[in-house]
Amino acid sequence: xxKPSAPRRLYTPRxxxxxxxxxxxxxxxxxxxxxxxxxxxxxxxxLQTLMVLTWIxxxxxxxxxxxxxxxxILLNLAFSTQAAYAAPLILLAQNRQxxxxxxxxxxxRRRAAQTKADxxxxxxxxxxxxxxxxxxxxxxxxxHELESLRTLMADLQSARPDADPARAIDGVERGARKTx
Length: 180
Fold this sequence. Notes:
Among the domains are: 29-70, no CATH class; 78-158. 74% of the residues lie in helices and 0% in strands. The protein is mainly alpha-helical. It has five helices and no strands.
């Protein structure tokens, strides 16, 4: 049994019954790049030179195989055809490379902008930390203040030798609180 077909809608046009080849632009571009890269190699130049020498040798010395006599019109036609196809293929490959370069440049610009923003953020955070650290007492400052308190206590104790040192400390603390 065959599978039932979907109902046809009259408002939807039928697809063409002709075969139309569909080329993937990416696949075509990759093929053109490979050909363009091959045209620029020493291997291609060597193969082309060997083919031309073989062509000329066969047409000059093999009397029964002479399909292209001396002015080598057919060989010139082959070279013209090859040049007619090579130039557009090379241009296609260059266009694809320019597109890749443009995308890479945009990505580099985006990455540079992100790096700049990150750097500016870190610079602001570092400046904020420096300001915050500027408000925190340093070791030298605390040492100096403790030294001042010790000399003050020593002065108080020498002024009143009979005074209790614990009371003197309480008095210093009260005096320090009043000044704050």
